[in-house]
Amino acid sequence: MTEKLIKNYSSQNFFMIGLIIMIAAAIRLKTNFSADLIPGINGGYYPLLARNILETGSMNYPDAPLVHWLCASLGAIIQLVTGLSIDNALIASARLIDSLIPPLVAVPVYFLSKQVYPVMEKPEPARYIIPAFTALYLASLMVLSGDMTKNSVGLVLLAAFLLHSIRFFQYRKAKYILFAIIFLILTGITHIGCLAVAFAFILISSSVSLIRSAQKKIFRNFSIIMLAILLFISVSLLLLRSDPDRLTRVTSFYLNPLRIFETPYLFLLMNGQHPYSGFLWHNFLIINILSFSGLIILIKYRGRIQNHEQVPTWGLAILSLALSSPMIGIEWALRYHLMAWLPIALLYVFILRALPGYLLKNATLWVFAALVLFSAIAGITGKRMTSITRESYQDLWNIPSVQIISENDLVVARHGLEWWTGWVLNCHTGKEYCLVPADWNKYPQIFLLRQKKGNNYPGHQGGGQFAEFPVPPGSTLVYSSVFFDLYRLEAPSTKDYYRGDLPLVQGTIRTTGAGQILIESEGYLQRVSLSPGIQLPDLPADSIQEGKQADIWGRRVPFSLKIKAETIRIYR
User: Residue 505 pLDDT > 80, yes or no?
Assistant: First the structure.
């Protein structure tokens, strides 16, 4: 084959990848700029933190910093070039970053495909169909867009990390370790969930290598595993040191890894509950079918995988199964089910070459091509909802004119409203259930903002309603409009109860028994066991009675739907 032919062929492949990236970016631009606000429940989060950075040089809310600094920097450039107000420039910046960076996930996948399938080796379409799947897959276009920029950008960096980690396991060259470390650091300062997946791949692949290795290599591979564990714990704790909420969750997971199996998604399905709907449900089915099929194919044709590719291929297969698993607890499932498609795509790069005969190869490619087509159509025709309507957003701008709230005050609201509240009112903001008594010593005033109409449920056509928090006794109504009521919250007395986190279950007590109760919540019965020494704030022990409303905090029991109650708030 002549050098000119190879060069022309490579140019064609680069053109195809560029075209894929442009199509994905165009769909995401349509999603982001056709909405009145940034789509999704957390749409206001990114411009709010970017404005914090430009005004104070830091973020008011602890988080992985890379995306927020990118948003702030691009927003400043847009303002300088276009003359837009800083608020409009930051919203445009957040939309552009979410539209243009995530499609780049196709690039590292393409380079792996190009490496596995040398020039002109069949099946040629594998070099761009699998990368197209990663850039255009429905989970990326319809769920990880708008308000999930950190997740999407983190997956791009995770893909680059996986590429160089795979190359290291294949070729054992130091340069691949260097690139892997660079992308690991970038992943860590972008999204902690993607960082966890990166370390999971290291642990799984090192364990596979340990099992396959000769006796003399066992100590080296075991050392790699232990080093990876220590690095992950150290790096994650370092990144989360200023984020108490996430730090608490991650630390509790380290102390009890079985927490990942609390309230498994599969058990909810067996109980008649369906936490996923729409694209989330489609994604769940697709990733499980692909991951299980990939494992079966790998087991059957493992001898056709080249020896130096065995470790990363098995690592990707096990990682794909783990991230797709229906046994993951619902708290973690949504995060990892939406990441599983990336290692699945990389797995099939190797599997496609192992399949015997063009019939099986082409059939598999047609499956991925159909998924790409379906996802692209869904992205073009679908719409992501904003957390609040345009009319309610405009009404929110009327609150500053009454001059009730200062920049040092705290305004709490339901999830989905709090970020736009901080954005418009230019004050501290948060969720009502996060309040603790000490907050009244930190802020001059604390307010509760309740929305009466105009709130959407993002991600579902037609919208829906989010539950608003009840008004605490003794609160004062200081502002009311068509869309909002604003209450000033009084400092809590010893009889008031503020836990600082969301109840595990809220509902009506239906039956009580020896050491346990049944709570009806959203049409389903939840079994709750009562821990010894259970706390009942300001209420006698006999307050747990049928028909009463209750909020319950405590611990979930792994591999079950049970909750072990530690604190119960009974509404009189």
Answer: yes
